[in-house]
Predict the 3D structure of the following.
Amino acid sequence: MIDLYIDPGTGSMLFTIVISAISAVVYLIRILIIKAKNMAGIKSQNERNAKKLPIVIFSDNKRYWSTFRPICEELEKRGQKAVYMTASPDDPALESKFKHIKCEFIGEGNKAFAKMNMLNAGIVLSTTPSLDVFQWKRSKTVDCYVHILHACGDISLYRLYGLDYYDVLLLSGDFQEKQVRELERQRNLPAKEIRMVGIPYLDTMLMHAKNYQKPKTNTTTVLLSPSWGASSLLVKYGETLIDGLVATGYDIIIRPHPQSFTADKETIDRLMSKYPETNKLHWNRDNNNFDVLARSDIMISDYSGIMYDFAFIFNKPVIYTNAQFRKDPYDAWCIEGETWMLSTIRKIGRELSSENVGRVKELIDSCIRDSKQTSAIEDARNETWCNIGKSAELTADYLVEKLAELENKDKSETAKTDNKTDKKAEKKEATA
């Protein structure tokens, strides 16, 4: 039997070597694990970036295609890839033949919002309010949410907190920016990016109006275009107003709000039965309202936003009713003073009331003769509709510009992360 003896000095040296070797192996394994995790994280991030949609346009209803169509057409011209997602199975966009814009139906209601809540995109453009308030939540893999207006007027007439959690607002008037900044101040919100672009659908209507040839007639055409509900014209004045209009001898077009046929069915059924179609009275239910607006000389309504379209596009007078307006459900409740729309309608129109409804012909004739209203319409148009004829182009400019900014930011942050990872690994190796 061989007796092995190692002196204390040699044993100590060998022990140190063994421990150092084990430590080195353990450290090497740890470094490899860290690198593997970092590589996996980078790979995962790179995969997400590769699958990220550059621009998504979200429409919760087909009626907003008039806003999005000119924008899509402008992006298509530039060869910019985008995806138009709609919650309407019969959205006209789905029939489009774009090469660079993919249009898809993503389900109705909550199914659509569930899709949007998990979206991976650079930019989301939408007219839909209440982001991160109700069922539509901000996705962690969307870089920027952009809101665009679908009508002229107050930004404060969205429901409470309607635009608080958007990153960017594309607006059409300076007074709107003042309303936004006041709400941000009150709620201690970070300042949103604001860009003045205009109103795409009004630009399209204006282009069509310039090419429209109105049928020749010697008779005044009156368009009765009410909203729906208890305060609507047809519910409030009904037979009294229609009798007065028929008595004028003018051509009368009655265009009820689509919701009237459900919410005010009894009233609509009664009136349509009592006042059937004649060569002087017409009930209109066309999907597209352009033709009926273009051939009418004056509109009677009840604070419906269509009054502003009619006045701004065709420079024609409007008559409105004094409907009761409550600010408390809206952001306007938080802002002192009267809304722009309510103060403006009194400048560009005349009020129909229970006192003068019996003299409606006199009211109509007076409005048509009043040249002051034409001047007031021009002033109101300038206040709420900037960059006339250029809104789609400016919106596309902004989206492309913002997308490039976000992509450069992603590249810069990825490079910084890679650099930090490499330096940490080098430092640990150097101190091993």
The CA atoms of residues 164 and 189 lie 8 Å apart. DSSP finds 15 helices and 13 strands in the chain. The chain has two domains: 51-199+387-412, 205-384. The longest strand covers residues 141-148.
